Amino acid sequence: MGEEANTKVYKKRGLRKIVETVAPLEEVLELIHETGGESFKYCYQCGMCDTVCPWNRVRAFSMRKLVRQATFGLTEIENEDMWRCTTCGRCPQRCPRGVGIIEVGVSARRIATEFGVFPTSVRPVRGVSASLIGEGNPIGEEREKRADWAKGLSVETFTEGMDLLYFPGCYLSYDPRLKKVAAATANILNKAGVEFGILGTKENCCGESIRKAGDEEAFKRLARENIKTFIDNGVNKILVSSPHCYHTFKNEYPEFRVNFEVVHISQFIFELIQEGRLELNNAYEKKVTYHDPCYLGRHNGIFDEPREILKKVPGLELIEMPDSREDSLCCGGGGGRIWMETPKGERFSDLRVEQAMAVGAELLVTSCPYCISNFEDSRLTLEVDEGIEVKDITEIIQEAL
Ligand code: SF4
Ligand code: SF4
Fold this sequence. Notes:
The protein is an alpha/beta fold. The chain contains 17 helices and nine strands. The strands form two sheets. A five-stranded parallel sheet has the order 1-3-2-4-5. A four-stranded parallel sheet has the order 7-6-8-9, with helices on both faces. Strand 8, helix 16 and strand 9 form a beta-alpha-beta unit. Helix 4 crosses helix 6, helix 13 crosses helix 14 and helix 15 crosses helix 16. The longest helix has 17 residues. The N terminus is likely disordered. The structure holds iron/sulfur cluster (2 copies). The site of one iron/sulfur cluster has 15 residues, from helix 3, helix 5 and helix 6.
């Protein structure tokens, strides 16, 4: 901890960042406590976190060091490193002291957000926050267009008494590539005779990723609006496509004293097949490898259902990659990183696409909009788009019906 770190100190007073040496930095420690990062105190600097962090496959990065800085109240809010963590969940799994490593990182981001300090690569997050508050989505699209993906499909607006709310989330509602996933989902539900509806323009971003990017206020606002909409419309059970929506509805919205039944599409399709409501008759003769999204697998323990449904597709050969299940290699999109700039050569998704090709897969399949976006980008930037396809699990099931 050098002198330089000691000079990069900020005070809450008047929300003004000041540069001076303050010891023992109690105000900073207080802020870290207030923003949920206090478990740094259990860290004994073993470095296990750094050995598993995917950043160290592409460049040097030390979460251990960031936790250490927090211990002394020396969190440097100008430091680009505190924005690197994708909240993938690998290091908390390994930490022998039970440090809430993700929470320590998010705490630093909350402080930086409060002071309005963003390094260049992180600046897009400011626009994201504005778009979330204005239009309910992070990509600057109009709220009125949120249900356009469903035009021409048999998709109704959710009304009280319906069995299921389908919540496609932002990327499946607007992104041209991912709208195909929303359409595949609707087709599967219709084929199985499931009664469902969507909220359309009344749906807001779930808020999961902006929370991990440090904007707690935006998260709370989105969560409260969604919860009110769910309650006003008599929603009980919510079907989601994104593991990020799944995670926040299931594990974070209960902080607002509500509990909705939440099901991910991979679980739901598995149930439909088990109940004999979906039959997979068409052959899909391809070598497929499955990538576990961090927020579906590691954070929520859903590893088997996606694999089980793929195994039921006639002709499909499922191959495992290294770094699968609990050890899955993050695509790089969590923790708000989907909105930040990651230079070529530092993208984990490139490594994952290469791993998929190395095991001989013709198709890399997953079940998360961020993973799909990152893998599609990697296919193009690595110039391997002829060699491997990227699909959501629903796109395969739709073809097998
Ligand atoms: S693994 Fe846990 S105890 Fe070890 S350095 Fe990382 S945060 Fe500290
Ligand atoms: S949660 Fe993942 S990305 Fe973040 S520090 Fe831990 S291993 Fe690295």
